[in-house]
Design a protein that fits this description.
Blueprint: E1 13-16, E2 19-22, H1 26-37, E3 42-45, E4 62-64, H2 72-83, E5 87-90, E6 110-113, H3 115-129, E7 132-134, E8 138-145, E9 148-156, E10 159-164, E11 167-170, H4 176-180, E12 185-187, E13 197-201, H5 205-214, H6 216-230, E14 234-237, E15 244-247, H7 259-283, E16 291-295, E17 305-307, H8 315-319, E18 327-330, E19 334-336, E20 348-350, H9 359-362, H10 368-388, H11 397-406
Parallel strand pairs: 1-10, 2-3, 2-11, 3-7, 11-20
Antiparallel strand pairs: 4-6, 5-6, 8-9, 9-10, 12-17, 13-15, 13-16, 14-15, 18-19
Helix pairs in contact: 1-3, 1-10, 10-11
Length: 411
């Protein structure tokens, strides 16, 4: 590969704080709020112009497992959504506990929500906590010294800048900061591939669903035809009675860390979603006067890097409902603190879908509520590590667990 040599340069330091959280998705918001509430001067850095990640910009507008992880900051976010009349709880219908590859076991409660209101709620939670927020900032490098993360480099409209901190939390989803810092990791593609979500408005949803129910064979033939023409595109109910939530075609040959693949999926997905929208309007009763509200502004990548941590959570751990002495949360299985600590790097914790698991186990912790729970634990641990003047791997786990219990976390 042809290369160029860049000249040396001095990078201005714009912030020095206790805790730096990289990534403003659900895990990062929970981490920053928790760190700030526990007394740490905290900075949250996000590459987009809004908070929420795939929950908001990605239009993943259903919180799965709000019963299993309905505590702590996750519970608070759901309660705020309900106060704004921007969510509804859906009770489980499936038989509980059946393993499903790529996602959580069946039988979980869920919560449909309005992504724009969640953006607002997350911003309010950050503001109320006292954390500093920096949007439109892409993390491009890590500053390490003798194996410890001391800072990171961001780029954006303000140029190239540095941020220094005492403890860092990687909530980027792709373990970007961990990888830049030299932490070991594995990379896999999720069995569901990569895709974009979308919403269609002004739909007579009741009429459309009744026609689908009354005409199963014609509907199946239509969907097979659509699949042949543009790929597998599905739709269903959303929070609002005249709006449907749709899933664009899944791309299984795309690498979520390759910008060329991501570009191809973005462009091709939009082409196919618009074609599917026109197909729905033409063929499905209830869609005649529909319009396309939006296509997700953030691409739906489910799995890329997973750190290799002090413990690697396995499918067997999850299926058997295993508990650990260092639990930082429990849904139907325990999540050990060691899964948040990458090997070979000091001063760094990881939260969200890129914590230390096997490929098979990752699907059961990548949903929004468990990501928020690991974020809350990582933020709390970061603040306590600063207070106790220790590296995160040296933190007294009993102290962490006691603090999390006081926050309403179920261990």
């Amino acid at each position: 590969m042809k290369t160029i040599k860049e000249s040396e340069r001095e990078t201005p330091v714009i912030e020095e704080v206790d805790v730096v959280v990289a990534g403003g998705g659900p895990a990062g918001v929970a981490a920053a709020v928790s760190a700030a509430r526990n007394g740490a001067k905290t900075l949250l850095i996000e590459r987009y112009g809004y908070l929420g990640g795939l929950a908001t910009g990605g239009l993943v507008i259903c919180l799965d497992e709000t019963d299993r992880y309905g505590f702590g900051i996750c519970k608070e976010a759901v309660e705020r959504l309900l106060e704004h009349e921007a969510a509804e709880v859906i009770k489980p219908r499936e038989k509980p506990g059946i393993w499903m590859e790529g996602t959580s076991p069946t039988g979980a409660e869920a919560c449909r929500f309005d992504p724009e209101i969640l953006k607002y709620i997350f911003s309010e939670m950050i503001s109320e906590s006292g954390a500093i927020l920096l949007l439109h900032s892409l993390i491009v490098d890590s500053v390490t010294d003798d194996g410890k993360v001391r800072g990171l480099i961001i780029e954006g409209k303000s140029g190239r800048q540095a941020v220094l901190g005492k403890v860092f939390v990687d909530a980027t989803g792709d373990a970007d900061l961990a990888a830049l810092s030299g932490a070991p990791f594995n990379v896999d593609r999720h069995p569901w591939g990569i895709n974009l979500e979308f919403r269609i408005g002004n739909v007579d949803v009741k009429r459309a669903l009744k026609w689908k129910e009354d005409n199963p064979e014609p509907y199946r033939e239509l969907m097979n035809r659509l699949k042949t023409e543009v790929g597998m595109v599905s739709w269903g109910k959303s929070l609002y009675e005249n709006v449907v939530w749709g899933h664009g075609p899944h791309f299984y040959d795309a690498d979520g860390l390759d910008v060329r693949d991501l570009t191809r999926v973005e462009v091709e997905s939009r082409r196919r979603i618009v074609a599917a929208f026109k197909f729905f309007k033409k063929h499905i009763p209830g869609f005649e006067k529909a319009f396309l509200i939006d296509i997700a502004s953030q691409i739906g990548v489910r799995e890329t890097r997973r750190i290799i941590g002090e413990y690697i959570l396995t499918k067997e751990d999850e299926m058997t409902g295993r508990d650990f002495e260092d639990n930082i949360a429990r849904g139907i299985f325990g999540i050990p603190y060691r899964c948040l600590i990458p090997k070979n790097v000091d001063g760094l914790l990881v939260a969200g879908r890129c914590i230390s698991t096997t490929h098979e186990a990752q699907g059961a912790i990548r949903n929004i509520p468990p990501c928020m729970i690991t974020g809350q634990a990582a933020g709390t641990a970061a603040a306590l590590s600063v207070r106790e003047k220790v590296n995160p791997q040296e933190l007294n786990v009993g102290l962490l667990q006691e603090t999390l219990r006081k926050q309403g976390v179920r261990l």
